[in-house]
Amino acid sequence: MYWHCYLINWLKDVIVSEAYVLVLYYSRHGATEQLAQHIARGVEQAGLEARVRTVPAVSTVCEATEDDIPDSGALYASEEDLRHCSGLVMGSPTRFGNMAAPLKYFIDSTSGLWMSGALIGKPAAVFTSSASLHGGQESTLLTMMMPLLHHGMLLMGIPYSEGALSTTQTGGTPYGASHVAGQNARPVDDVERELAVALGKRVATVSKQLQH
Length: 212
Known about the structure:
43% helix, alpha/beta
C-alpha cells in the first residue's frame, strides 16, 4: 500500500512538472505582447510553465509567406502546442471589435483538434489591447471566447475579488485582461499589469487542480 501511494504521488508530480499553459497571442505593435508577458509571469508564479507563442501575419498576396522562425520575439505556435497544453490564455489586439485576422486564421485551422476533442475540459481565458478606451475591448474578448466554447474549454475571467478590477480607469475587465495603449503606445500600467498577472495565476491554478 505504501508503494502504491508513493507511485500515485510520483505520477502526479511528473504530470504537473510537464504541464504548461499556452499563452497564445498576435501583436502588431507590441502592446498585446506586453500583456502576454505579464500573463506568463502569473502562470509561472502559480507553479506552471508558461509556453509563450505567437502566430504569423497574414497577407493579401497569396504568394507571400513567413519564415518558419520569426526574427524576434516568441516562436510561432503549432497545433501540437495547443493539443498538449493544460490551459490556454489567448490574446489579440482589437480590430473593429473582434480579434485580428492572423489569430482568427490560426484558430480556424484547428478543426482537427475540435473533431478529436483534444481541448475539452481545459481552462481558457482571453486578453486584448486597443488604442482607445472604448475601442471594442469587451466585444473582442467575448467573440474570442466563441471558438473556445466550440472546443469545449472551460472559460475563465477575472473575478471582482481582484480589487484592481473595481478601481481601474484604463484596461481590465471581468471578461479578461486588457490594455489601453492610446495613440502613443502607452506602456502597460500597474493596474493592467496586476490584472494580467492575476489572470495567468488563475488559469494556472485551475489547470493544476484539474491535473490532480
